[in-house]
Amino acid sequence: MTLPTAEAEILVPFHDCDPLGIVWHGNYTRYFEVARCALLDRIAYNYTEMVESGYAWPVIDLHLRYVKAIRFNQRIVASATIEEWEHRLKIAYAIRDAASGERLARGHTIQVAVTLPDFQMQYASPDVLAHKLGISP
């Protein structure tokens, strides 16, 4: 089974950069978030729908590998792919130059389901995620 992927094109704004016109390192995670939102929209389980289902999925781990500097006004493509979903949600990310396809960064996040409103961690992903992924629980 192929798990879903999504991507988003981003034109790097000036306010994301340091005085040298290079994207400040903390903004790479924002680009991951843009791709993650596109992915969650694709499976019809965005943050609003998560809350409506009675769950939140906080990030508990983040890994980011910088490959090459991203610069002001560069057009990039950030992609997100679900890699694991049964006991946790692992999403892999890649940021590439839109014109050349050259990889600029990669990483992943680990998220776990917690019930709302009490934030009790779940040790298995709730059935709603399997349903959104088109998998019978």
Question: What is the topology?
Answer:
Layout: E1 5-11, H1 28-42, H2 47-53, E2 55-56, E3 59-66, E4 75-84, E5 89-97, E6 103-111, E7 114-115, H3 127-132
Antiparallel strand pairs: 1-4, 2-7, 3-6, 4-5, 5-6
- Poorly predicted spans: none
At the fourth CATH level, what is the homologous superfamily?
Answer: Hotdog Thioesterase
Count of discrete alpha- or pi-helical segments spanning 4 or more residues: 3
| Biggest beta-sheet profile | 5 strands, antiparallel
How much of the sequence lies in strands comes to: 25-35%
Question: In the CATH hierarchy, what is the class?
Answer: Alpha Beta
* Topology order in helix (H) and strand (E) letters: EHHEEEEEEH
How would you state the average pLDDT, rounded? Answer: 97
Strand order of the largest sheet: 1-4-5-6-3
Structural class: alpha+beta
**What do we call the CATH topology?**
Thiol Ester Dehydrase, Chain A
Rg on CA atoms, Å: 16 Å
Please indicate the count of domains. 1
Q: How many distinct beta strands?
A: 7
Tell me, briefly, the overall form: elongated
Cα end-to-end separation: 14 Å
* CATH architecture identity: Roll
Percentage of residues in helical conformation: 10-25%
